[in-house]
Amino acid sequence: MIKVSIFFVETHTHLDLIKRNTEEVVREAVEKKVTKMVTIGIDLESSKIALEFASRFEEVYAAVGYHPNESKLMDVSGWEELEKLAHNKKVVAIGETGLDYYRRRSTIRQQMEAFKKHLNLAHKLDLPLIVHDREAHRDTLKILTEEGKRLKILLHCFSGDLDMAKSCI
């Protein structure tokens, strides 16, 4: 008889935004067979916090980046600091990055520049890229087609249709 072990990986959480005790949240997740969690940074500060959680909990890993809505906050020194964070062994992905034309809290230009920087960093470090695509399908696909080759990509906040999903696959 073959014994099968079942476990789950939570690929996208924001532990810094949960209003409960983080230790309880992680413990409860592990009890429910969630053996690994990736907590996501949406700007420099939350990326630092994600890495702090990853260093505190064996089951937690971090992704560092600027969410498209926060790309307006990305300056040269902040990006350099984020790049340094990305070299930590507990960082398993770059992002959350991408394009969000629904809210547009950052300009399209700011979002595209940030998206491309994240792509380059993911290539440089050979890490997966977490991509947020909300109502920006054509531009997201264009950038991924031109610059995302050979990257492992996790699409998050996917609001596309079946044709877009097929293109992504």
Describe the structure concisely for a colleague.
The protein has 169 residues and is of the alpha/beta class. It is built from six helices and six strands, in the order βαβαβαβαβαβα.
N-to-C CA distance: 35 Å
Largest sheet entry: 6 strands, parallel
Overall shape: globular
Can you identify the CATH class?
Alpha Beta
Strand order within the widest beta sheet: 1-2-3-4-5-6
Helix content: 40-55%
Number of helices: 6
Overall pLDDT score: 94
Total tally of structural domains: 1
Stretches where pLDDT is under 50 for at least 5 consecutive residues are none
Structural class: alpha/beta
CATH names the topology as TIM Barrel
**What is the β-strand count?**
6
Order of helices and strands: EHEHEHEHEHEH
How much strand content do the residues show?
15-25%
Radius of gyration from CA coordinates: 16 Å
For the record, the CATH architecture stands as Alpha-Beta Barrel
Provide the CATH superfamily: Metal-dependent hydrolases
Description:
The protein has one domain: TIM Barrel, CATH 3.20.20.140. It has 169 residues and is α/β, with parallel strands linked by helices. The chain has six helices and six strands; from the N terminus they run βαβαβαβαβαβα.
Keywords summarizing the entry:
6 strands; alpha/beta; 169 residues; TIM Barrel
